[in-house]
Every structure is written in C-alpha cells, then in structure tokens.
UniProtKB/TrEMBL annotation, chains A, B:
It comes from the Bacteria. InterPro entries: Enolase-like_C_sf, Enolase-like_N, Enolase_C-like, L-fuconate_dehydratase, Mandel_Rmase/mucon_lact_enz_CS, Mandelate_racemase_C, Mandelate_racemase_N_dom, RHMD-like. Its cofactor is Mg(2+). It catalyses: L-fuconate = 2-dehydro-3-deoxy-L-fuconate + H2O. Coiled coil: none annotated. This is L-fuconate dehydratase.
C-alpha cells in the first residue's frame, strides 16, 4: 500500500489544555489545581495511506507551551525521514534524539527535553502499530526478542542488565504467550482507581466513590495524603470503613515529605493498613527511598511517575528502594526507554504498576502493561494499572474498563489519537473554550 | 535613591549563540560541535536608578530557543513584584518558582525548567548586588548567617543537613574572614585550565598550550578523554611530557562511559597519574559513581556540571561517590540552590572545584568559590576554579586571571552583564552575524 519512498512530511504541534482545576479533580498535596494538558503532536507522511502518528507529553497547565516548543525543536530530526525505516526501527530515532549532543545539554535525558523525545518516539510507535494493523501491545508481544533487544539503549544500565540477560528474559517470556493472550482478551488486565481519593473531595464524596469503586469490581483504591495528618487519619478511616478489609488502599503523598516525615507520617497511618505509599519524597532521592522502605515495612514503597529515566530506575532497583515500580508512558523517552525499564523490573523481580490518569495516560500505558504480562512478567498477580475516569471522551479509542479490568484495546496503534474536535475546542489560548473563558474573565 | 515602590517592569529575553563549533573549541567525547549559547534575560525596573538584573542559562546551541521559552514562562512570577522585597529575599522568589505546582510537573527541579529558574534567580542576585554596590561574592561573604540560612531550601536534604547545622557552619566560617578577604584581594583564587585539552586539538597544539599553561602559572590542566583509548594514552603521555611531574592533570570523559568502561579506561591511564577523572558516567548515576570511585583510587572522582539539583548532590555525598564536587552556576536553581550545595559539601568535607567555561560560566562561578573560601571552607587547598579562555570579551566585567589565579572581581553585581553589542551581533537567528552566516549558507 505504502510507497516505499514515503517520508515524514510534517510534525504538527498543539497546546491542548483542559480546565480540570475548576472541579478539584486531580487535586493532591503538591498539585492543588492542575489543568490537565497535552503537548500534542501529529506526524504526517506522504504515504497516501491516511495514517498519522500521534503522541503527546502530559503536563498540568502552565508550561505546556514550553513543552510544545521542545517537541517542535525535534522537527528537523523527523521531517524527510523514511517512514518504512522509522517504523522498522524506532530505536534508531530514539538514539538520534537522545544523542543529539546540543539538545542533550538541556538534560541529559530528563525534564522538558526528554519528555519531548518521549512524545515523538511514542508517535512513531503509534504510526508503526497503525501501519501493522495491530494494537501496540500485540505488536510488541509478538515481536522477535532479538529485535526488541535492539530497541533498547543499554547505555548507563549495562552494569545492572546486559543485552544477553534481556534477550534471555524475553525468550523465556515466550512460553505460554498464546494462553495468556487468550486470558487477556477474555478478562482484561486488572486496574485500580484513584477517583475516590482526591484531596479536594469531601468525606461524603470519598465514601460514595469508594463504595462505587468496590461495586465496579476494583480490588484496590488510592487516596491522596500528605497535606494534614489529622485529615489523613480521618480520610483513611473513612475509606477503610467504606471498602472493608478485603480491598487494598494505597496512599499517595506526591513527593510532599522529607525522608523523616515520610517515615513518621506513614507509620502514623499504619493502623489502616495502607498497601503502598506512593512518592513519599523526591523522585530523585534513591537513597531516601531505600531508607524509607526499610522503616515502614510491611507498607510497600511505590514510585516512578516522576522518575526521569532508566538510570534512576536502575538505581532504585539496585538499592532495594521500592516494592512497586510505576512506569509512566509519557515521562521518559518513550516506548524504547520503557522497554528498558520493564526489562530492569523483570530482572529484579519487582512488579510494575503503571501511573496513569491525567489526560491520555491510561490510553497509552495499558499497552505497556499488557506487553509486560504477555512477554515478560507472565502474571498479573500484584499488578494493577491506575485508572482515573477523566477525559477519556476526547480520544478516538478510549480505554474500556469493566469489572475493575482494562479491556485489551483492539484498535490499531497506541490509542493516542485525540478527536480533532477536542483539539479545536481546547487549544490554548485560541480554542473555542479558552476564547470564551478568557473573554469571560476580562469582562 | 530607589523609590520604595519600585517594581519589576519587564523580563526581556534573548537567544544568543556563538559559532564556537567552527574552531573545535569546546570539543569533547560527547559534545563534538558545541555552539556556546546563552538563553539570556534582563530584569528591568521602574526604580530610576539605571540598574538591571542580568542572568542566563548556558546551552550549546540547538534548544537555546526552548530554554528562552522556559525563561519567558516565568515572567508572570516577576513582573509587578517589589524590587526591594525581591532583593532583600531572593529565596522567596526561588521558592515561588520551584513551588509553582503546574511548572513543577515539567521537572521537578531538573532540566530546562530548572535551568530557567536558575537564570531568573541569578538575575535577581545580580540586581541585588548591584543595588548594594558590591560584587556578589562580597555581599554573600558578609551576609548575616541567619539570613543566608533563610535563603536555603532544605526540602529533601534535611536528612543530610539541617538548618541548625548550616547555621553552625556559617557561624564558624566567620572566624578569620578579614584575613582571608585580604589574601583573596592580594592573590586571587586558584584556577586550572582546560584550554590545552580539547579533543579536537592536535598533539602539537596540546603540547604548546600545556607548556603555555604552566608558564602562565597554572598548577593543574585538564584533558578531554573517552573517544579512543589509544589516542588518550598518547595525549596523556604528551601532556605529561609537556608539563612535568609537578603539575596535576585532570581528565574529563563527559559521561562517555558505562560503569565498567569507566573503571577499565581510567585504570588504563593510571600510569600517567591523572589527578581526577571527571564525569566518568551518567550524572544521574549516584551508585555508579560510588562503584567507580572504589575501583579507581587513588585517582579521584569529580562530577557536578550536569548534576541537576541539591538532592542528587546530597546522595553523591551520602554514598561517598565523589572526591571533588563541581558546582555549576547555571545548571541548578541559582545562587540559592548553590548555597545549599556548598553547605552540603562543607558538611561532608568534600572540596568544591567549580565547572566553568562555556560562555559566562567563569564570570558567574568565581563569586561562589570566593564566598566558599571566605565564609565556609576557609581554604583554597585542593580547590581550583576551571578556566577556559573563550568569549570573555562579550562581558562588561570579564574575569581576570593572572598567574593561574582568578582576581577577585570588584564590579558590583554577579558579572553576568553581556555587552549589548554582543547580544545584537549574536542573537539567533536575527543578529548581524547569523544573518550574514545564514545568507552565506544559502547562497
């Protein structure tokens, strides 16, 4: 179908912001008023097949324009590139982008520039999966192990995971693939919900949503904590009363504490048996997480949504600093780096429970967990994908969660495609919503 | 002089790029063709005293526009703010910027957004020192210890350094201040030079520049390494022959190696007695640096120019991962965060030898080392500031280095002010140099 000479012709970027702060959806101890936003991009080609690659960085409002500028700065690496070659080997693009010596100075491999690389790399995987007519999880799960290993950058992690070890893990993961795929298509992948637990919600709303979560089939919920200890005691008691003893309650401090505070605060909540404490301190503090983990067991330590790259994940695993590894689909350098992180987790035997929510993060990350189940971990035991019921309506192929499980998406691609009408409505500051909103503010 | 109601009226930004890649100045194993650049800003006020605050992020070319966009995103935090309040307490601005919950998502405290915060915070210190009629080093060295402690954000480092410990270090540092200040004004602060050692230079040029460095009074030079081991053996032998046994030769790999490679490569060069190996691997790899340090002693481990914030420095110190801590004036969140890092180094007894070079980094960082000497470390033993003789002519108060020592700058401010004519010439892409250059390329 595609002309073999097809090229990338354009990288179109969009600053898309949703006014979520108006409802206190997404409020936590560090993020009181997020406006969930996407620095969004579309790769266009001259293949004539109607297919585009979509990707985005997730931000929470201000600075989304900076993120868009960073994506735009990558345009020269993409325009003119062969579509066939790009989709056959997204790793080559990933290496080119991470290795651009001038852009590298702005990280390296962290923050705005690295998130931009992740958005672009993910858009290529979206295009590759669409061209293959497969949802990304399936493309990855059935890919040749040697090829998957070729997609991973082992620089700075080879002391913890060699290419040979990665290959052995992926080869071993092939056993039972067909049975697991049948089970995945039948039951889906377990999720947990954060919807009851936002910090801005009343106790009544917390109780109602917690009971609803159990009724909906979730076996784990999550509460935001860390603003006020007395409030947290009351809210955790309220949540425990609402869900009973059989449901796991995770707590999430969103980096609010110093090391000592994290230990004291978590232990003060221990009576309510929190399952894990998430982001107890700075995501940069490997040694701090190790200290906290030792002091709060049996409560588990979970982190990852703000971990900048595979090098920090490597150290968290080497230091025995976490019980639960939380990948994020849009923070690191895209699918290729998340393959490295999933392989590291498999090597160290630590379960992966992705961060999601925001806008589009559930849509993306489900593919990575499903690949993990089919091709690496081989199990969904103690593994859950975060679920938040916001903003899915803006996507072409929104996640489907039933009885507490993510249904395996069947639409080809990475589920990253946003409705053009949503982009037109919420483009900042010139979309219809913001034009009206800003006019209202000034009147 | 200043009206008490004076406000910040504008934050003007400039994308300034120098075509240094044409001469292979600044070439190393990771950065073959840097165009030293500044994402530059000027704070303007309505005080009527003619004073401005200047600051910048240093980049190496592409992406400087992204860095400028990040600085511009901070404008709403500055415009309208009281000049008196800002200059009396730059820490309050630093906390506001680091704590902006929406912008924080783009880091936190790392990469493009954090470097932008550093540029803005440094510009405020420049303005504060100009208003005080003092070079910044002197303002800091004579500041009240309690006030200095109030300028430090202890979040995420309090497990290693408490405010009380910081205060005790600063109080103890007052003893002998007057004598040290006299000595500083008399002799200056020792420097070392990287000018002979760029990777792109011939052996003849290396020999000539190394001999020149010794003749100029430097007791330490630095060589870039890491591209090819045979070349490095030859270059290090050449350098050792040129300078003799009494001069220290540091080597700098600019993050080129994995952990195992760093150990093997450094040990292969041990016969030439390198003094330190700099950036042997990823700046994110605390545990990797600790492993390397143990395996290459007595060669010292130095790092810091790409260390993103105080939290990673804290861990490098906690893990015993470095012998030499290299602050950078324009990578972290500005003077306030560098105060935290200097205090951490003092607490752990590790000498600080700043990274400099690029454009304007020597001008800035000399102030921090001189403060360190006067108010914290109390010594210049085993402490040297990097010196590279590039691009100083673009500054209003360029560094003066004589007999291997940085002379203490006496011009009020942070030495950050670039000539308006240099900005006009090298603004990208609309400055006179680039207009002519781009026209030449297209003709």
């Amino acid at each position: 179908m595609t002309a073999p000479s097809a090229r990338i012709t354009a990288v179109d970027t969009f600053d898309v912001r949703f006014p979520t702060s108006r409802e206190l959806d997404g409020s936590d101890a560090m993020n009181p008023d997020p406006d969930y936003s996407a620095a969004y991009l579309v790769l266009r080609t001259d293949a004539g097949d109607g297919l585009e690659g979509h990707g985005f960085s997730f931000t929470i409002g201000r600075g989304n324009d900076v993120q868009v500028a960073a994506i735009a700065a990558l345009r020269p690496h993409l325009v003119g590139r062969s579509v066939d070659e790009l989709c056959a080997d997204p790793g080559s693009l990933s290496r080119d982008l991470v290795g651009d010596s001038q852009l590298r100075w702005l990280g390296p491999e962290k923050g705005v520039m690295h998130m931009a690389i992740g958005a672009v790399v993910n858009a290529v995987w979206d295009l590759a999966a669409k061209r293959a007519g497969q949802p990304l999880w399936r493309l990855l799960a059935h890919a040749d192990p040697e090829w998957l290993v070729s997609q991973v950058d082992f620089r700075y992690i080879a002391d913890a995971l060699t290419p040979e070890e990665a290959l052995a893990l992926l080869r071993a993961g092939r056993a039972g693939l067909a049975e697991r795929e049948a089970a995945l298509l039948e039951r889906g992948y377990p999720g947990y919900t954060t919807s009851p637990g936002w910090l801005g919600y009343s106790d009544e709303k917390l109780t109602r949503l917690a009971k609803q979560a159990v009724a909906d089939g979730f076996t784990q919920i999550k509460l935001k904590v860390g603003a006020d200890l007395d409030d947290d005691v009351r809210r955790l008691r309220t949540a425990r009363a609402a869900v009973g003893d059989g449901v796991r309650i995770a707590i999430d401090a969103n980096q609010r504490w110093n090391v000592d505070e994290a230990i004291a605060w978590t232990n003060a909540l221990a009576a309510f048996e929190p399952y894990w404490v998430e982001e107890p301190t700075s995501p940069d503090d490997v040694l701090g997480h190790a200290t906290i983990r030792e002091a709060i067991a049996p409560v588990k330590v979970a982190t990852g949504e703000h971990v900048q790259n595979r090098i920090v994940f490597k150290q968290l695993l080497q230091a025995g600093a976490l019980d639960v590894l939380q990948i994020d689909a849009a923070r690191v350098g895209g699918v290729n780096e998340n393959l490295a992180i999933l392989l590291l987790a498999a090597k160290f035997g630590v379960p992966v429970c992705p961060h999601a929510g925001g806008v589009g993060l559930c849509e993306l990350v489900q593919h990575l967990s499903m690949f993990d189940f089919l091709a690496l971990s081989g199990t969904t035991e103690n593994r859950v994908i975060e679920y938040v019921d916001h903003l899915h309506e803006h996507f072409d192929a929104p996640v489907v969660v039933r009885e507490g499980h993510y249904r395996a998406p069947l639409t080809p691609g990475f589920s990253a495609t946003m409705h053009p009408s949503s982009i037109a409505e919420y483009r900042y500051p010139d979309g219809a919503f913001w034009v009206a909103d800003l006019a209202g503010q000034s009147s």
